[in-house]
Amino acid sequence: SAVISQKPSRDICQRGTSLTIQCQVDSQVTMMFWYRQQPGQSLTLIATANQGSEATYESGFVIDKFPISRPNLTFSTLTVSNMSPEDSSIYLCSVESPRAVEAFFGQGTRLTVV
Amino acid sequence: GENVEQHPSTLSVQEGDSAVIKCTYSDSASNYFPWYKQELGKRPQLIIDIRSNVGEKKDQRIAVTLNKTAKHFSLHITETQPEDSAVYFCAATTGGYQKVTFGTGTKLQVIP
């Protein structure tokens, strides 16, 4: 199974600022996924990040708000820009297993915007 | 795109009883159905999965069934224990590096 290190694990941020979340995987993976999990809710996919190309965003999420980088096959970042209290959520990165099905998750970043 | 519905949203059972969580999906191309358990403050973790060429799979006290025709699948937990208390998510995907679509989650409480 893949080992995913995500940081920071939590942060409290002022509205209007930006936070960059990092996700490091211990093996090369084709795709990395970023999810948002609002309190008491399910996981919603924000975008899919491929190495060497622009991320693909899901409906309701835009690059200006959630810019993503994917500089190599083991690392990705998600930035939450110009934050508001509505952005308070858990953000999780995910990768697929070598069998290209099961999703593995980082430990998540609990973001609180005040 | 895929849509996954999950019921019930909350479920309380006495310790030792069985718990059943049901999900339906919309995309007939989906062929892999994992179930995740998420304990409070922790990441989701895979507990069991089933592929579309299989009707049922069991792992100790946990079993999953799949009805492709009806596009529904279910999680069955027998002899529930307090440590089974968590939020459970069903999911569906076509695999092959395609995105995973999650259900809305079921909060299971096992009462000692």
What features would you describe in this structure?
The complex is a heterodimer of chains A (114) and B (112). Chain A has 114 residues and is mainly beta. Chain A has strands spanning 4-7, 10-13, 19-25, 31-37, 43-50, 56-57, 68-72, 75-80, 89-96, 103-105, 109-113. In chain A, the strands form two sheets. In chain A, strands 2, 4, 5, 6, 9, 10 and 11 form a seven-stranded mixed sheet that branches. A four-stranded antiparallel sheet of chain A has the order 1-3-8-7, with no helix packed on it. In chain A, strand 7 and strand 8 (75-80) form a beta hairpin. Chain A is globular. The mean pLDDT of chain A is 91. Chain B is mostly beta strands. Chain B has no helices and eleven strands. Chain B has strands at residues 4-7, 10-14, 19-25, 32-38, 45-51, 56-59, 62-67, 72-77, 86-92, 101-102, 106-111. In chain B, strands 2, 4, 5, 9, 10 and 11 form a six-stranded mixed sheet that branches. A five-stranded antiparallel sheet of chain B has the order 1-3-8-7-6, with no helix packed on it. In chain B, a hairpin with a 2-residue loop joins strand 6 (56-59) and strand 7. The A-B interface holds A 30-31, 33, 41-45, 48, 92, 94, 96, 100-103, 105-108 and B 32, 34, 42-46, 49, 89, 91, 93, 95-97, 99-105.
**Poorly predicted runs of chain B:** none
Kindly state the mean pLDDT of chain A as a whole number?
91
Overall SS class of chain A: mainly beta
The number of helical elements of chain B comes to 0
Low-confidence stretches of chain A: none
One letter per element, helices H and strands E, the order of chain A comes to EEEEEEEEEEE
Total strands of chain A: the figure is 11
List the helices and strands and how they pair.
The complex is a heterodimer of chains A (114) and B (112).
Chain A: E1 4-7, E2 10-13, E3 19-25, E4 31-37, E5 43-50, E6 56-57, E7 68-72, E8 75-80, E9 89-96, E10 103-105, E11 109-113
Parallel strand pairs in A: 2-11
Antiparallel strand pairs in A: 1-3, 3-8, 4-5, 4-9, 5-6, 7-8, 9-10, 9-11
Chain B: E1 4-7, E2 10-14, E3 19-25, E4 32-38, E5 45-51, E6 56-59, E7 62-67, E8 72-77, E9 86-92, E10 101-102, E11 106-111
Parallel strand pairs in B: 2-11
Antiparallel strand pairs in B: 1-3, 3-8, 4-5, 4-9, 6-7, 7-8, 9-10, 9-11
